[in-house]
């Protein structure tokens, strides 16, 4: 009886597709997804019992790499809506009400786009989420647009990087890639 059960199991394993076999895995994405929190490292601090501030914001984005390319004005076109990263459009979530550009923003999840120019960027908070790229961007779903200055850096950053930094009246989202840095103030 035992031999019959083993035989039946082996027939099942080798005759059913996918069972007992390794599926082909997708290749690793060169534009790895990343996430930043305010306060910085909030999940780790929370599980360690060291969080001293409540969670305010989280941003989820894919990190493209410079890889010798000319980024702004070439790969990322001036004057065009950009998903602020690679692959899926960048999403930002607020866990409390905040103010951006003098406007109250309700807690919730939004897509964060930009329109880069050489000396300034327009940050766009949009209600449409779970979208890929900026191909289906709909300006009628914009919550706010905020224009910020661009700082030119003397060194180049290989990977798009976004971090939150504490300020006196809240925080700022710092975006750095290539030799460009911008900051979006968030008040709370």
Biggest sheet architecture: 6 strands, antiparallel
> Which whole number gives the mean pLDDT?
89
SSE succession: HEHEEEEEEEEE
Which blocks of ≥5 consecutive residues have pLDDT under 50? 1-22
Q: How many domains would you count in the coordinates?
A: 1
Description:
This protein is mainly beta and 188 residues long. The chain is 11% helix and 43% strand. The protein has one domain. The strands form 3 sheets. A 6-stranded antiparallel β-sheet has the order 1-2-3-6-7-8, with no helix packed on it. A hairpin with a 2-residue loop joins strand 9 and strand 10. The longest helix has 14 residues, at 2-15. The model is unreliable at 1-22 (pLDDT under 50).
Summarize the helices and strands and which ones pair or pack.
Layout: H1 2-15, E1 33-38, H2 42-47, E2 57-62, E3 91-94, E4 98-100, E5 103-105, E6 108-116, E7 120-126, E8 142-149, E9 151-167, E10 170-187
């Amino acid at each position: 009886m035992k031999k019959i059960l083993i035989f039946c199991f082996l027939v099942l394993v080798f005759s059913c597709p996918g069972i007992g076999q390794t599926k082909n895995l997708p290749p690793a994405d060169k534009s790895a997804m990343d996430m930043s929190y305010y306060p910085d490292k909030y999940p780790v601090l929370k599980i360690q019992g060291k969080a001293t501030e409540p969670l305010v914001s989280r941003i989820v984005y894919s990190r493209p790499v410079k890889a010798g390319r000319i980024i702004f004005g070439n790969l990322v076109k001036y004057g065009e809506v950009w998903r602020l990263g690679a692959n899926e459009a960048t999403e930002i979530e607020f866990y409390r009400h905040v103010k951006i550009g003098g406007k109250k923003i309700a807690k919730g999840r939004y897509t964060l786009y930009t329109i880069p120019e050489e000396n300034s960027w327009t940050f766009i908070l949009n209600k449409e989420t779970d979208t890929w790229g900026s191909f289906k961007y709909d300006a009628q779903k914009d919550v706010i647009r905020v224009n910020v200055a661009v700082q030119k850096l003397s060194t180049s950053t290989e990977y798009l990087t976004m971090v939150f930094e504490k300020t006196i009246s809240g925080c700022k989202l710092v975006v750095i890639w290539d030799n460009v840095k911008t900051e979006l103030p968030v008040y709370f």
